[in-house]
Write a structure and sequence with these properties.
With 381 residues, the protein is of the alpha/beta class. The protein folds into two domains: 14-266, 3-Layer(aba) Sandwich (Aspartate Aminotransferase, domain 2), CATH 3.40.640; 268-380, Aspartate Aminotransferase, domain 1 (Alpha-Beta Complex). The chain contains eleven helices and twelve strands. It has helices at 14-22, 31-44, 55-65, 92-100, 119-124, 145-159, 212-221, 255-285, 313-322, 348-354, 368-380, and strands spanning 49-52, 83-87, 104-108, 130-136, 164-168, 176-177, 180-181, 188-192, 205-208, 292-294, 306-310, 357-360. A seven-stranded mixed beta sheet has the order 1-9-8-5-4-2-3, sandwiched between helices. A three-stranded antiparallel beta sheet has the order 10-11-12. A two-stranded antiparallel ribbon has the order 6-7. It is globular and about 75 Å long. The relative contact order is 0.17. The model has no long low-confidence stretch (mean pLDDT 97).
Length: 381
């Protein structure tokens, strides 16, 4: 039997949680969504969070929220054509919301030691049009958020405003920075609960906000702009909404997805530790192998994937497949897609890294024998 790169983590008792909801007559956003958000709040530590139907919705919503000027946190607002500094090494779900909001992409190179954004290149690419910095915590390993804050300060000194930071935490549920879960460092954070993530709701996501005004607007905009607690039009009809001041989306989570999330939350928290332990075992046992270069080990990473650099990459992929182990680069670089040709720039660090970047199985499903088999195969290769 082959060793997969990804696997869905589902509570074996899911039916006992889900059946009562399916037969309850109430399966859209309701009490289970509220319960799930309360448990996520207890785990993450930030009360300003909202569940959504996808992380892509969260990133789309995050950018939409920032168009409005907001004096409560000295935000100048955005306009169509402003730019978002972002990484090309990620899922397209990270960057297509930029296009959906009629903003411009400016690609930033990567750090070869982490596959995260190169913060020196980021600093050099700031401009008067840079309103947002969108970072990806590759594989669950946090970007240096303290250094990012310094870059915000630099931008303020040079251009008179601090770009907003959006953290794409799709890989990073359970990851920490400076002893705090991601979601508590003053930025907008978006998490994915898609099928193969640490925590799955079947499909879904979560947005965590740093300011009350953003939270209150997001709560409205995830459901058409309707205040769900103020129905009953003119006190005459409980089904009709009052005036909508700002149109929104159908981005909310439903009670079916929330129930799956509730049943899987404790499983996911345990699995993050298993991923971390497996990553540590790799990092200790893959040292000093010719043709293999390890990324920086970070104990605060959630290690959704374990990334390394390998010589003769395609040969390695074929070799591991022949020996029953699935490996992959995982995400194709976004800047090569024709729909973003207009934003093309030179990214020499990514060009070099792409020749050797590979991810190997690191998940909760691996036995000790599986880990040793993978290590042995890499050493033989």
């Amino acid at each position: 039997m082959s060793i997969p790169l990804f696997k869905v983590a589902m509570n074996p008792d899911i039916s006992t949680f889900l059946t009562p909801v399916l037969t309850s007559g109430f399966i859209t956003q309701g009490p289970k969504v509220e319960e799930f958000e309360k448990q996520l709040l207890d785990y993450i530590g930030n009360s300003k969070l909202l569940t959504l139907n996808a992380a892509t919705s969260g990133l789309t919503l995050a950018l939409r929220l920032l168009f409005n000027q907001d004096s409560s946190f000295n935000w100048p607002g955005m306009e169509v054509g402003d730019e978002v500094l972002t990484s090309a090494l990620t899922c397209t779900a990270t960057n297509w919301p930029i296009l959906a909001n009629n903003l411009n992409i400016k690609w930033v190179d990567i750090d070869q030691n982490t596959a995260n954004m190169n913060l020196d290149d980021l600093k050099n690419k700031l401009s008067t049009k840079t309103k947002v910095i969108l970072v990806v915590h590759w594989g669950g390993t946090p970007v240096d958020l303290e250094k990012l804050q310094g870059i915000q300060d630099y931008s303020f000194d040079k251009f008179g405003f601090r770009p907003m930071i959006i953290e794409d935490c799709a890989h990073a549920f359970g990851a920490e920075y400076k002893d705090q879960n991601l979601g508590n460092h003053g930025n907008i954070c978006v998490f994915s609960f898609q099928a193969i993530k640490h925590l799955t709701t079947g499909d879904g996501g979560m947005i965590v906000l740093p300011y009350d005004t953003l939270y209150e607007r997001a709560k409205l905009l995830r459901w058409y702009g309707i205040d769900r607690n103020a129905r009953n039009f003119n006190r005459k009809d409980f089904r009709l909404e009052k005036d909508i001041e700002e149109w929104g989306y159908k981005f909310h989570m439903n009670d079916i997805a929330a129930t799956i999330g509730l049943s899987n939350l404790s499983v996911a928290i345990e699995n993050v530790e298993k991923h971390r332990n497996n990553a540590k075992y790799y990092s200790e046992n893959l040292q000093n192998i010719k043709g293999i270069t390890l990324m920086e080990y970070n104990p605060d990473s959630s290690y959704w994937i374990y990334t390394l650099k390998v010589d003769r990459k395609q040969e390695f992929i074929n070799y591991m497949k022949e020996n029953g182990v699935s490996v992959s680069q995982v995400h194709n670089r976004n800047d090569n897609h024709s729909c973003v040709n207009q934003y093309k720039v030179q990214l020499p660090e990514l060009d070099e890294l792409e020749n050797s970047l590979i991810c190997i199985p690191v998940g909760w499903w691996l036995s000790h024998d599986d880990l040793d088999k993978i290590i042995s195969l890499i050493k033989k290769f």
